[in-house]
Amino acid sequence: MTDVEHMKWWGWGVEGVGFHHEDKPAFAPFVLQAVGLDLATAQKAEQPDFDALTLAASAARPAFVAALAGIVGEDHVATDPLERVVHSYGKSLRDLVRIRSNAIARAVDVVVYPADEAEVQKVVDAAVAEDAVIIPFGGGSNIAGSLEPRADETRTVLSLDLGRLDEVLSIDAESGLARIQAGALGPHLEAQLNAQGWTIGHFPDSFTHSTIGGWAATRSSGMQSDKYGDIAQIVRGLRVVRPSRDGADGVLVIPAIPSASTGPSVRDMIVGSEGRLGVITEVTAQVHRVAEERTIQAYFFPNWSAGLAAMQAISESDATPIITRVSDARETGFSLATSKQRHGFDAFLAEKALPGIMRSKGWNLDDICLSFIGFEGGAAHVKRQKKLVGAIVKQHGGMGVGTGPGVLYDQKKFDTPYLRDFLLDRGAAGDVSETAAPWSKLAQVYDATIAAANGAYAELGIKGWIMCHLSHSYHSGACLYFTFAFVFGDEPLREYDLVKSAIQQAFVDNGATISHHHGVGVEHSPWLEQDISREGVAVLRGLFASADPGENFNPGKILPGVEVRVEG
Ligand SMILES: Cc1cc2nc3c(=O)[nH]c(=O)nc-3n(C[C@H](O)[C@H](O)[C@H](O)COP(=O)(O)OP(=O)(O)OC[C@H]3O[C@@H](n4cnc5c(N)ncnc54)[C@H](O)[C@@H]3O)c2cc1C
């Protein structure tokens, strides 16, 4: 069998790794207060039993499977239940709830692992000749429902896993451009770049289990985007396999030019296309020399509006941090509650000295907001940046607390996703919705979104939680990232839909986008028209219809029309 590894079928990450709270004494009281879940008595669900899943037989014709095996080799074609299930979903809360409750509407029929672009071309051509559906698969980490086949799909559905295309092919050191195969997972490609002194500078929270092809296909953004850019800026060149035509291969090539005036950008059409325009096999990415120094400083602000104003002032200043992030008071409370037990002087500082200083400044400790600002570069550059930012923080009433919390943030940044499985195991939802808006609208978007979520909780008659941070700053605005949680009642997905829909609607009603970096898939498509206008959707519809007249490439994604929400 192929040696491409995947996340566990029922949750995030790898088997045997999970979130634990026993060493975090403030966590259980926090959860009790936030959503009314008592971790001391909550029953932990058993790990779901794969054999109990009901899965329709693969609809792939044996002759088609044999033809695919003829292209990629028998070891690299799979129709077994585990492979089919793993490739049929991403990791949205809806995906995890359904898979844990044996609600698989339509699984893919066959999974194929080509070794190189030539094999991808042959698989695509064979699939189009079969009138099959092709769904490219990267790491399977998306949370927008971008991978699942349409429930009513009658054609054979093929998942094209890019996992064997995982090499950094070459680096143009003069230009800082690296040719990277689309299926390379974050850690693997970063290790290959680091070995030659380079970094991609793109670190989404899902970094460990997502691929560069998936990042490009979903218009991803990483936590260091303030300096290195979103994936849309990082992707310079592309190779995309489409069906062969007129006896020639169907490879769409976008050369890695820094900027070009060649009509509407085809590169930008591919970036964010979620598999609808073809299979990305290679990305030429802008890469950077690994910085001499890296530091993440922590600051506190007396309240959210001071934190927001400071982030805006930093974005307008000469400072060029890699990360600007500030949590609202609730998320600050959450971060403090997930800190490990402190001892000795450390405990004195965190629990007595620091709160004492804040009180002496007249701060209300329930309002304080934690901020992380990161710097990279040569020593003199980092020193100057810290000074510039330090002055802005001070002007906005904030205070620096050194690098200690920043070091912890850096260490645990990829662990947070495991918390969602921990909550699901105990009958509770934990999920996210993120958006972006101009600076002038951010406070309004924030207030309206919190009110919308609380309104949904009131309608459900439950105690729910919502918290937020600002991250990914731009000249004209920033991203707001909301995390919400509540204990499920009798109808988990209906309850989830009510809360999630209220949040998404608040975004568009207040001049914000339906997604800054999670893509559209089927989860966000109901709001696309309200976001990019009816004519914007018409242009997209025309693009997909002409580029893929047979609807072979991941049909149903991005455009409104495929309803996944449970009407309640
Ligand atoms: C806990 C958690 C945290 C997350 N944090 C972030 C974050 O910080 N930033 C962020 O941007 N996203 C984040 N995400 C979302 C997700 O990781 C991204 O959408 C990611 O870019 C998906 O990459 P992937 O390789 O897993 O793609 P997949 O999930 O496998 O696929 C996503 C979509 O892209 C298409 N696709 C994949 N590869 C290709 C290809 N080679 N050619 C054409 N189409 C392709 C698929 O068909 C599908 O439509 C998070 C998700 C989770 C669950």
UniProtKB/TrEMBL annotation:
The keyword Oxidoreductase applies. This is FAD-binding oxidoreductase. Substrate binds at residue 420. One of its GO terms (biological process) is lipid biosynthetic process. It comes from Protaetiibacter larvae. Pfam families: FAD-oxidase_C, FAD_binding_4. One of its GO terms (molecular function) is oxidoreductase activity. Residues 103-290 form the FAD-binding PCMH-type domain. FAD binds at residues 205-211, 218-221, 274-280. Keywords: FAD, Flavoprotein, Oxidoreductase. InterPro entries: Alkyl-DHAP_Synthase, FAD-bd_oxidored_4_C, FAD-bd_PCMH, FAD-bd_PCMH-like_sf, FAD-bd_PCMH_sub1, FAD-bd_PCMH_sub2, FAD-linked_Oxase-like_C, Oxid_FAD_bind_N. SUPFAM superfamilies: FAD-binding/transporter-associated domain-like, FAD-linked oxidases, C-terminal domain. Its cofactor is FAD. The keyword Oxidoreductase applies. The record marks 325 as: Important for enzyme activity. The active site is at residue 481. Belongs to the FAD-binding oxidoreductase/transferase type 4 family.
